[in-house]
Amino acid sequence: MTTHADGRYVGRRRPLQILSKAEVERIHEAALDVLAGTGVMFHSDRALDVLEAHGATVDRETTVARIPASAVEEALATLPGAFTLGGREPEFDLPIDGEHAYLTSDGCATMVREADGGVRPSVKQDVYDAARVVEGLDNLSATSALVSAQDTPDESRVLHEFDACMRASRKHSIVVSIKDAAEARPLIRMAEAVAGGAAELKARPTFSVILCTVSPLHMERFGMELALELGDAGIPMMLYPMPILGATAPVTPAGTAVVGAAEILAAVTAIQLAAPGAKLVHAGGPTALFMRTGSYFANVPEALLLRALQGQMARYWGLPSGLGWGGTKAKQPEAQSAYENTLGLMLEMAAGADFCFGAGLLDSVQQMSLEELVIADEVFGVVTRLLRGVTVDRETLAVDLIKRLGFRGDYLFEQHSRAHVRELWRARLGETGTYESWQNAGSPRLEDKARAVADGILASPAPEFPAELAREFDDIIAAVESGRF
Amino acid sequence: MAYADKCYVGERVKFGLLDETEVKQIHEATLDVIENVGVKFHSHNALDILEASGATVDRKTTVAKIPAAVVEQAMSTVPHEFTLGARNPEYDLPLDGEHVYISSDGCGVFYRDPVTGEVRSSRKEDLEHSAKVVQALDNVSATSAVVSAQDCPPETRVLHEFDACVRNSEKHSIVVSIKEDWEARSLIRMAEAMAGGKEELRRRPMFTTIICTVSPLHQERYGMDLALTLAEAGIPVSFYPMPILGATGPITIAGSAVVTNAEFLSGATLVQLAHPGAPVMHGGGPTAMNMNSGAYASNSPEALLLRSCQGHMADFYGVPAWYGAGATTAKEPGIQSAYENALAMFMAYANGADVTFGTGLLDGSRILCLENMVVDDEIIGMVRRILTGIEVSEETLAVDLIKKMGFSGNYLFDKHTRAHVRELWQAKLGETGNYEGWKNAGARSTTEKAQEKVAEILAAPAAPFPADLGAEFDAIIAAAAREAAAV
Fold this sequence. Notes:
The structure holds two protein chains of two kinds.
Chain A: H1 21-37, E1 40-41, H2 45-53, E2 57-59, E3 64-66, H3 69-77, E4 83-85, E5 94-96, E6 102-105, E7 111-113, E8 119-121, H4 124-136, E9 142-144, H5 157-168, E10 172-175, H6 181-195, H7 198-203, E11 207-212, H8 224-232, E12 237-240, E13 244-245, H9 253-274, E14 280-282, E15 287-289, E16 296-297, H10 301-317, E17 322-324, H11 335-350, E18 355-359, E19 361-362, E20 367-368, H12 370-388, H13 394-397, H14 399-405, H15 415-420, H16 435-440, H17 446-459, H18 467-481
Parallel strand pairs in A: 6-18, 7-20, 9-10, 10-11, 11-12, 12-14, 13-15, 17-18
Antiparallel strand pairs in A: 1-3, 2-3, 4-5, 7-8, 15-16, 19-20
Chain B: H1 20-36, E1 39-41, H2 44-52, E2 56-58, E3 63-65, H3 68-75, E4 82-84, E5 93-95, E6 101-104, E7 110-112, E8 119-121, H4 124-136, E9 142-144, H5 157-167, E10 172-175, H6 181-195, H7 198-203, E11 207-212, E12 218-219, H8 221-233, E13 237-240, E14 244-245, H9 253-274, E15 280-284, E16 287-289, E17 296-297, H10 301-317, E18 321-323, H11 335-350, E19 355-359, E20 361-362, E21 367-368, H12 370-388, H13 394-397, H14 399-405, H15 415-420, H16 435-440, H17 446-459, H18 467-486
Parallel strand pairs in B: 1-12, 6-19, 7-21, 9-10, 10-11, 11-13, 13-15, 14-16, 15-18, 18-19
Antiparallel strand pairs in B: 1-3, 2-3, 4-5, 7-8, 16-17, 20-21
Helix pairs in contact in B: 1-9, 3-9, 4-5, 6-8, 6-18, 8-9, 9-10, 10-11, 11-12, 12-17
């Protein structure tokens, strides 16, 4: 059977080196220095307990744990090797093994940009529509609550968002807005229903969770109880530092890398020591502050370099990487969103990211745009081909063929061309024909073509969702909403 | 600070697309082809030089089979670094592997009106305008005949194009459409007048020529005779193979890399044999054919990968790398042109390009779109900052600062931030503010803002051009026209 992941195979990459090996080690050493000398604030007794038991110096009043290098080393040694993100259907399982490259939708926006440019607050239907579009795009591999389901109750919103993603798509789903262990339990129950049991969920986790750290050096919103709950259930956790250059971290990129590294290592250490073998991913989205307007930027080159560097640091530590991507400042689908996001995607993927998290948003992750999902699908197709690189062997060098054809440009009719022509990348969205044919088609703008693709997907039938699963989802959500869960 | 300092990237963030073994495999396959199949040189002059140096030449078929030893001997004299001169020395461009540049593109035949979107045949005034735009954009380093001056007589068109470029810009210029030896002689005279003499021109060549080879394995008469004339005058020559994957080269990237490399290497060998030490560049703009429409695309990923292979080959031979990047197949400025050109530029430079050629054309290098140069200027600025990478030092790691700040996010007000904040890249074109600010400012797209920038540039006066030089140019062009009429 050909699976979705087969189409996402890129093989062993020759990763872009953002820093030399010696420089990577220097960042690592500096982070260890900060962890041992300054420490990290944990706001969780369970985290402090486990760290203390492994040699950290803990101050219960300030909740600061100073973590020795030995504890970090011990924790890194228990990281699992390759693992799989489960799809709703096994056909969409995503092996995280360094040889596949995936792209997912982004999360947490609150506004929706409509086809006519109008902007309005988001509702559950938007989460569903976005996941439908993700389902319909070959180069996107996981859904997420691209926007918040603001028309659902606070206490069950995460469940409604997951519900919308699962009903709309057979792909893996990433949960972003979860805050505590109480929310995790019904979510895990829903996922167990999808996977077919607790053991099955552990083997093929239907969802993964993003856990943000707070720069500088806080694990504040990072509920240790939540992490342990998720770790027990085998749910992968994407650890997501978001230092801002010049605001919550040094303005020099290397210094921000140290803060990010310290936060990642602290989170990895606490979780691995408490739940050895927990599936962890180096995620993260450093940004730079734009001093004049006070707004921050995900797509300035310094932030892009730092995001890509995370991929290199992750390899050094033996962690997979799922990097934050796509936070264009553009206010509509246009040239700016295209060049910013494209450079970021190429850079992060070339640096070795297993996946990037972040298609479908504009205006610094505030507005959902279905067009952007479709554009990301096209660009990622090109990037994927570039990641696969060049094969140099007897067959591809084709010296005998070159000698035989000599000075005649007749390659088109050769067996060798027929044998390899299907390997060539093909545009699905971009213009490839003549100017006249484009004009005759009404001179379509790319953003309009992208919208038409999204509309076409939404007009086609949704993937079937088993009725008993739907009932189970409804029951779990109703139980939570009536306080019976 | 010289202009080139703005284009400095130092030891750049680089791709390991090919490893040493693979580079060697391509090199050896190339030597095998050049020695055993040979290359067709449609120039007696070229065949004479090659034969005298040990190549086996068939005068009837015009094929020269060049032994590997001859190629290797010839390549031992290529210069590894040289400078592209500009009318104003401030804009000289050192090619040393530590700077990256983009020029405008070449050979388009249409102009797109930014307001109406109407497309018409190109004229000399379009070149005057594009040269002004290049001059005004910090990140675009050289002019070129981005479109053809079709309103000028064919016999002096190249001279008019060069004239339009250098009168409206103080930057280096790239000449693409030159064909005849006598055109080259007039051009060299114009450039000598700019540089202040023969020797000065050799030291600071005012223009570079792109010489297209013809795939598979042909060197045109024009190209080779020209290359020899130009090399003698010290004008850098960029050999520019343009194989089409699966049509005029193998469909597999590595195979077309061999064809491309054979064309470069045979041209460079000829030039080095005739004029040891003459500056040459490993250029090229390979494309992939869309098998459905028959159209070819220079920004397809396979074409970008093939160019990237060339970057590694150039590195192997120690010559500057010079690639096509920016020839989007988009029909209008916007999303497709932005993502295609961004990827093309990033791939070119991350794989070793010193110069990319170039910006300004749409529809597969046919339609001039001035505002797209402004967008590319912004993109190349980002790419250059990315290539520069992350500096790791005690000062930039700032461990003491991180320890001092501890758990409070007050970096904004620290001296360290003030000391380094100006190092951060700044957008010139893209949106940086909030949604309301953008809406209140008229909800303009990047393309619209770029159009306004073009209008602003064109409304300002061009950089002054010395009157005596202008008179000399006019006289050279008039003489060339007379000469052509007499033939």
